[in-house]
Design brief:
The structure is a single chain. The chain contains nine helices and ten strands. By secondary structure, the chain is of the alpha/beta class.
Length: 313
């Protein structure tokens, strides 16, 4: 059951503006704040009998602002159920580009999305925003959504190989973020100290060196303060050491340390029941360190990094 939440598949394709007519789900085009249309925009305008241009010419267009989307629902002349017009400033910071992608990701839901990106220089950042926003933790949900396959994202670009190469490390970052989010969202009766350590130990498969220290080893190291935190629990306290050695041999590593309290009832006389469910997130620090180590390994980072997490209940 503990498969990681999958990232909605993102494919980069050579621009084919003729495919817009029959594409189902949602189709998105990029329009500058100046209202200039690229070839895909002009094609969408022709298909919709001038609706895109009428939107740009309207008084409201100037107020839309960069990073916002205007949706034409059930557009005439297209099979899609929505034409999303993403308005973008020419000078876009990476963070603004990701946020713009997140707007598309939110609109996308489970539907297919075809994004006509042309030669936009920030397309990989936009794609990362889409990927991160499509996260949905459904591991413990039952019912009608079981069979619902989340449809992917196809992004049409001018230079496929270049964009794919540029996106590869961002895909790794997204996978690290998903790993962290899954850990943080998992309830404490599933993510016990043992289960947490096992999920980290499994990252040997992607090239991390992983060492799991048990209570006996922690006692030898005189890590008494950490051990005392877990005294009130049946779950054994652990420390997991993850190492990524992608830098020069002998170079001092960067060390990341994360707090991994899988559940904390606190001073039971002090801590009220309200908000107690959020205590499953008291291991967020360790989750971030784990996700970072995963991303480093997946993108083969040229760095030496050690991730240390203390896992207790």
């Amino acid at each position: 059951e503990n498969d990681m939440t999958a990232i909605a598949p993102i494919r980069f394709l050579a621009t084919d503006i003729d495919s817009m007519e029959a594409a189902t789900g949602r189709v998105a085009i990029l329009v500058g704040t100046d209202g200039k249309l690229d070839p895909a925009g002009r094609r969408a305008n022709r298909l919709t009998k001038g609706a895109v241009q009428r939107l740009i010419d309207s008084d409201g267009f100037a107020k839309v602002g960069s990073g916002k989307v205007v949706t034409l629902a059930w557009p005439t002349g297209m099979a899609a159920e929505a034409l999303d017009i993403l308005v973008l400033d020419k000078r876009l910071t990476p963070v603004e580009a990701r946020k713009a992608g997140a707007v598309l990701g939110k609109l996308k839901g489970g539907k297919a999305l075809q994004l006509m990106a042309g030669n936009n220089p920030k397309i990989t950042e936009i794609a990362l925003g889409v990927a991160l926003r499509c996260y949905d933790f459904t591991a413990h949900k039952t019912g009608k959504d079981d069979a619902a396959q989340v449809e992917g994202v196809s992004i049409h670009v001018s230079k496929v190989e270049e964009v794919e190469a540029e996106f590869a490390p961002m895909q790794a970052i997204a996978e690290g973020a998903f790993f962290t989010r899954d850990l943080v969202n998992e309830p404490a009766n599933v993510l016990t100290t043992t289960e947490f350590a096992e999920r980290l130990d499994a990252m040997r498969e992607i090239g991390l060196e992983v060492e799991v220290l048990d209570e006996e080893a922690l006692d030898k190291l005189e890590m008494r303060t950490l051990l005392s935190v877990g005294h009130g629990s049946d779950s054994p306290s652990k420390v997991v050491v993850m190492q990524w050695k992608g830098g020069a041999e002998g170079d001092a590593p960067l060390a990341l340390v994360g707090k991994g309290v899988v559940f904390d009832t606190g001073g039971i006389s002090l801590k009220p029941a309200a908000g107690m469910e959020d205590m499953t997130m008291d291991m967020g620090g360790a989750g971030v360190v784990a996700g970072t180590m995963r991303a480093l390994a997946l993108r083969k980072a040229k760095a030496n990094v050690v991730g240390l997490v203390g896992i207790v209940e």
